[in-house]
Write a structure and sequence with these properties.
three-stranded antiparallel beta sheet; alpha+beta; 331 residues; eight-stranded antiparallel beta sheet; single chain
């Protein structure tokens, strides 16, 4: 099955990593890797970083340090005058894309256009993300509509850091990466040769992603084995190393809202959750300028799947459809 899937995907580099009831299988495609084996390279997750952010939030809530209903504005800037709709935005709204915020701040695009194909986020730092949030005018009343927002999840990351008095990178390491043993996961590029290199559609290479102030929405980079470890932690009867993390892993699997045609698709705190003939499938995709990622798991069958290609794909590309179909295969 993995070989068949790999043959359908054309890319400079491809990794498909499958875990089924604790047994792991990896398949590779594309050109031969360099000095570092492909399963040890760190791949850019892009939006597939968001399940890490959501799990961190759920862990802090389970530990009693925060509540899902806490106002983000009050945690970021206590007492500062903001629009009433902004004050009503909770931590849950931010992670579930129901805050009413747009995908990106309005003033993001003018500064990003000159470097749109190389580093559009690099000139928009954390303090600017926070200021944009505090002066925002949400398009919809929080909690009433679903609209995917990198802006919202980035604000959540800064809010968690402010509320705990801990830098985002340290907080994620302390609460999620360290306890799960994810030694091959980080938020910044590593030494030369340790990261997968992204490619344009014409084959030209791209520099490592710089997410600027949008770290919580897309900065995670990880090795394939680490991604399987992260996904396996979501599969019952996996045992988490701490009680807050165990509670959090249960919370992030629980359906919270419905969307899509006839509301057929549900969302958890962090995952898209679609029905399939063999039980629900939880997944999240991610894309950077030169890499594409798919993470998914099926609790009913003990299956986890991580797949990554070292080039950007478009809507007509078979990568996502092929990997999603692979996850729903009969195992």
């Amino acid at each position: 099955m993995l070989d068949r899937a790999a043959r359908t995907i054309d890319a400079p580099g491809l990794v498909i990593a499958l875990s089924h009831r604790g047994h792991r299988t990896l398949r590779f495609g594309g050109a031969e890797p360099g000095e570092v084996p492909r399963d040890r390279l760190h791949h850019e997750l892009g939006s597939a970083s968001k399940p890490f952010t959501g799990l961190l939030l759920a862990t802090l809530v389970a530990a009693g340090r925060l509540r899902y209903e806490d106002s983000a504005a009050e945690l970021l800037a206590p007492g500062r005058p903001v629009h009433p709709a902004v004050r009503a935005i909770t931590l849950r709204h931010l992670i579930t894309h129901t805050s009413g915020l747009p995908a990106l701040p309005a003033d993001f695009y003018p500064q990003a256009l000159p470097r749109w194909s190389t580093a559009p986020y690099s000139g928009y730092p954390a303090d600017r993300v926070v200021r944009a949030f505090l002066r925002a005018r949400p398009r919809h009343r929080p909690g009433t509509r679903w609209h995917y927002s990198n802006f919202a999840v980035s604000v959540l990351g800064h809010t968690l850091a402010a509320a705990t008095g801990t830098p985002w990178e340290v907080l994620l390491q302390q609460e999620v990466l360290g306890p799960l043993g994810l030694d091959g996961t980080r938020l910044r590029p590593g030494p030369p040769g340790s990261d997968a290199v992204g490619h344009r559609r014409d084959g030209r290479t791209l520099p490592a992603l710089d997410t600027g102030g949008f770290t919580a929405a897309g900065a995670v980079r990880a090795t394939p084995p680490d991604l399987l470890t992260f996904l396996e932690a979501h599969l019952p009867p996996a045992v988490a190393p701490t009680r807050p993390l165990a509670v959090a892993l249960t919370d992030v699997r629980r359906p919270l809202l419905r969307r899509g045609l006839r509301h057929a698709h549900t969302h958890t705190l962090t995952w898209f959750r679609h029905p399939s003939p063999r039980g629900p499938v939880c997944f999240h995709a991610g894309a950077t300028l030169g890499q594409q990622m798919f993470l998914g798991f099926r609790p009913d069958t003990g299956t986890a799947l991580a797949a990554m290609v070292d080039r950007r794909v478009n809507r007509a590309d078979p990568f996502i459809a092929t990997i999603h179909e692979l996850l729903t295969e009969k195992l």
